[in-house]
Amino acid sequence: MRCAVYGCVSDNQCKSFEVGTKFFSFPKDKQVQGVWINLCKRQDSFNHIFQCKTT
Predict the structure, then answer these.
(1) Domain that holds residue 48
(2) I need a surface site. Which of 14, 15, 24, 52 has the fewest CB within 10 A?
(3) Per the structure, how many domains does the chain have?
(4) What region holds the THAP-type domain (predicted)?
(5) Nearest CA among 5, 8, 10 for reference residue 42
């Protein structure tokens, strides 16, 4: 899986996968999902299933 945030290269298949990186599913609620999509700042079409956070 790959992070949906613009500029983020986190991918759980990568050898350099950072310990402490967590992936979150986008909310099912369409209104909240829209907020998350806007916060990703992507202009292209993308798979908005996962977003990550490095701790």
Answers:
(1) 1-55
(2) 15
(3) 1
(4) 1-55
(5) 5
